[in-house]
């Protein structure tokens, strides 16, 4: 099973405050454990929403909304993609994670859809297309990502 592990943003991360050397070191060690255990597929930190945008869809109309976005508690500061046997295993790994921010924060755990989750709606032709696309860009495992870097998900603007 694959899961996205979502690190929620804080006021500080949205303000572009960089993690301390201590946190980067702790997180690097944790990421190494994840990689050595074969759990980590990818992981990255995100720039603050002041450097982002949203596109709102309304029928055929598209509206671009530039950041920053107000609801900090709903924003994402970073993420991992993990391959584990169960949600419970993902929870156990998260419980070992250093606190990604000073003070209170949340990490959300969400399972990714797999092809079989779509049932008959994913026709053999669509399944073949999906497999071909994933194979062409090595998207099936994320193994070629920057997951091996000590602080991959903690990247912030400089």
Quote the CATH topology: Alpha-Beta Plaits
Structural class per helix/strand content?
Answer: alpha+beta
β-strand percent reads 15-25%
| Total individual domains | 1
Q: How much is the average pLDDT?
A: 86
Question: What topology emerges from the helices and strands here?
Answer:
Blueprint: E1 2-8, H1 11-14, H2 21-36, E2 40-45, E3 53-58, E4 61-66, E5 76-83, H3 87-96, E6 107-111, H4 124-136
Antiparallel strand pairs: 1-5, 1-6, 2-5, 3-4
What does this structure look like?
- The protein is 27% helix and 24% strand.
- It contains four helices and six strands.
- It has helices at residues 11-14, 21-36, 87-96, 124-136; strands at residues 2-8, 40-45, 53-58, 61-66, 76-83, 107-111.
- The strands form two sheets. Strands 2-5-1-6 form a four-stranded antiparallel β-sheet, with helices on one face. Strands 3-4 form a two-stranded antiparallel ribbon.
- Strand 3 (53-58) and strand 4 (61-66) form a beta hairpin.
- It is globular and about 50 Å long.
Task: Write a short abstract of this structure.
The chain has helices spanning 11-14, 21-36, 87-96, 124-136; strands at 2-8, 40-45, 53-58, 61-66, 76-83, 107-111.
């Amino acid at each position: 099973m694959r899961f996205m592990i979502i690190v929620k943003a804080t006021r500080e991360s949205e303000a572009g405050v960089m993690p301390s050397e201590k946190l980067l070191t702790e997180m690097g060690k944790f990421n190494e454990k994840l990689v050595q255990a074969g759990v980590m597929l990818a992981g990255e930190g995100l720039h603050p929403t002041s450097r982002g945008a949203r596109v709102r869809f309304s029928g055929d109309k598209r509206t671009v909304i530039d950041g920053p976005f107000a609801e900090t508690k709903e924003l994402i500061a970073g993420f991992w993609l993990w391959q584990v046997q169960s949600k419970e295993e993902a929870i156990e790994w998260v419980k070992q994670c250093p606190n990604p921010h000073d003070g209170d924060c949340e990490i959300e755990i969400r399972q990714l859809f797999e092809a079989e989750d779509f049932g008959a709606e994913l026709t053999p032709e669509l399944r073949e297309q999906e497999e071909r696309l994933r194979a062409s860009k090595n998207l099936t495992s994320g193994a070629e990502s920057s997951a091996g870097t000590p602080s991959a998900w903690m990247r912030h603007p400089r």
